[in-house]
Write a structure and sequence with these properties.
The structure holds three protein chains of three kinds. By secondary structure, chain A is an all-alpha fold. Chain A is built from ten helices and no strands. Classes of the chains: A mainly alpha, B alpha/beta, C mainly alpha.
Amino acid sequence: MFKYSFQWRPVLQALPEMLWGAVVTMQIALIAMAIGIVVGVAIALGRRSANGIVRSLSTGWVEIARNTPALLQIYMVYFGLGTLGVRVDSFYALLAGIAFNNAGYLAETFRGGFAGVPETQFRASRSLGMSAFQTMGYIILPQMFRLVFHAMTNQMVWSILMTSLGVVVGLTTDLTGVVQQLNVRTFRTFEYFLVAACLYFLIAKVVTVAARILAWRLFRY
Amino acid sequence: MIEVSDVRKSFGKLEVLKGINLTVKKGEVLSMIGGSGSGKSTMLMCINGLEPIQSGRIVVDGIDVHAKSTDLNHLRKRIGIVFQQWNAFPHLTVLENVMLAPRKVLKKNRQEAEQIAVRHLKHVGLGEKLKVFPSRLSGGQQQRMAIARALAMSPDYMLFDEVTSALDPQLVGEVLDTMRMLSKEGMTMIVVTHEMRFAREVSDRVAYFHQGKIHEIGSPEQIFGSPNQPETANFLKSVHGA
Amino acid sequence: MFASPLRWNDVWLMLQGAGVTLSLTFWAVLGGTLLGLILGVVRPSSRWWVSAMIGFVLDIFRSVPLLIQLVLVNSFNSIVGLRLPVFTVACVALALYTAAYCAEVVRSGVLAVPLTTRRAARSLGMSWWQDITSIVLPMGMRVMLPTWIGLTLGVMKDTALVLWIGVAELLKTSQSIITRTQEPLLVLAIAGLIYFVISYPIARAGMRLEKKWNTQ
């Protein structure tokens, strides 16, 4: 059945290279997540805005992000913006695409989270003389983030998995990109990608555990 | 001094305040009683600008609360309010709950804010609970914490909106005791309450709200002893504890 | 069309690509749901170590990028010498991936049915199989169906990745049209619109269903 002989030695030798790729993967995922959280909060609030234009733009972002493939969103930045005369390299195209996607999904998550914080909290805070911004920052957001923390952890894992799409627009520095480069040179596809799969699995597990520890530290009430 | 003149307020088509006139002097304790929906709680929300009004004026120490130019955040520093639902901030400890507004609104540094908070928490009998999260407190304790939180801003006025209505009967006493203590210390207070015995004992004046108006106002002895209006008498007869 | 090299014929090609996308989705969801149903039903009532093992394997499928899974299945196909066409390879990989999520959907549906109800069913003399098919699955459906619709749409969008192993679905077709016409923005917008038109109404219907069931 097997005419193929597995060769693991070169794969293990390439491990440091792959680990550097994993670092880039984490970088992209974390930055895209951070942007996604900030923009996601803005969109979630925008959907409750009194301004009709702000409301439609926010809703539009969420629906496009959720109803088209992430890869198409990355293509849009990579190829699409080129038409408008903006040259985007694959790293930033991937980053922007994932951030766009994260923001859309997180906005929907946050919308539910905001609905879960009682209206009376807002009132109580304002009655103490705190401004709307202070109330948002010190009272509403901390409680909202707790309600949706589990969903945010999932989105972070998604964010990591999405970084593998970078290879499709020619990224060579992230984990999948590095592995693909090695693959092109050696054609040991199965071995390299299997090790990559293990690394992704480990990263996802580490992130999940780290998030659990973070939640335990942050939300002691 | 709080001066309310001819205030009208509606929620949509429903007019809940139909021309309220009222003056509360420094150091006075005014109780507002009346059936549910009579407008007394709404009146309270209008005094610190949490609810807008449609016409009339509310002036607190010369500041028109509902004027466009009024800095409500600034005004609210001077008017403390405690609500019926215990509005503890669940993600902050008891101490942090009380420290937050002095730090962020009054711009006190951490040490000062902590001193203020500890003082007020001890005052309401929560000196042992500083590091505890509100979820570990009873309703009565949470309500006393809310009082300390309002007091930490050194307000000139305190508004109480049915603060004992959501409490188990055995917890009502400790909150009323705290309010009694404040009134003895000379705090100016407006108290919306269903506790008639408390209103009678603590207030300088009692206002009976009926259908969006102050139907009758007078000393507790007069209102509870010999009400002039038949509606007042009927209401008092209908509530337990009068 | 639009005074550009894009022809109506290209749009027709893209719609054919969308057909491939839908057929990939169909097979992946069909296979994934069957496998997921079996695993999701078996898991809660199996020994703890069997359940833990199934859980671990499913977790792997959910924690490794789909792109990597596609490459692995594709390369496994050629190593073993199965010589399956790439379309089939794509369907198999997508189905395994779908099953990993579907098993979780089914499990939460099964666990949502109160144990007392199941005991009552068993005490009436129903067999395990009768209990599952006439009590658990119908009752768990309320929990499962809205999530399952979301999963199906998720898989539909994820099929775009199979362009990497050379299946000419909607996005791959669009890409080749872009190479010829040099009109990326327009072509991608049309492709996006096609995905959106498929996904949005179903997503809305799913949400309405969920809301309706939650309020009952």
